[in-house]
Hints:
The chain has helices at residues 17-30, 36-46, 52-64, 69-112, 116-144, 151-167, 172-191. By secondary structure, it is an all-alpha fold.
Amino acid sequence: MSSPPPDASARPQPRSLTDLFVSFTLLALQGFGGVLAVVQHELVERKRWMTREEFVEEWAVAQIMPGPNVVNLALMIGSRYFGLRGAMVALAGMLTFPLLVVLALALLYAQFAANPQVAGALRGMGAVAAGLITATGLKLIGALRKHPMGLAACTVLGVLTFIAIAVLRLPLGWVLPVLGGIAYALTWRKLA
């Protein structure tokens, strides 16, 4: 887990464990169908707890760790500011109230699952979630300009990843070590 960056005292950060818990609870409650767009907006643009570059780096680590990406990110951010207690509080914030909402929705869905309007609404929500993820990805492209590999190499690797997973339907377990390993080697070479 990462420690606060050297300039962390110069910018906002969670004021307390309660602030951390409430912030992640509100993030999780806003994130139906995908919380990435909400998390990026809240943590980078609104609260300014992270820069875009830090968010991209932390998100990359969160994606390769086992478990839900946003939960991994919450653990890393909580740990960054308050150590193990912060990680546990951020995790509790991400899971407690959303779990109660999901249980209530599951009970409600069981009553109306056969309704065609409900099925149509869920398909529509899926399209909106995909749009949110795409918009967030496009918004974060600017952070790749500062990456040691450069924007062109990052773009090529991103396109290759999309083709491998979305078009060729290769398993993530193969794509990640191969293309991730290439990205690691190229970055290491540039930094060496």
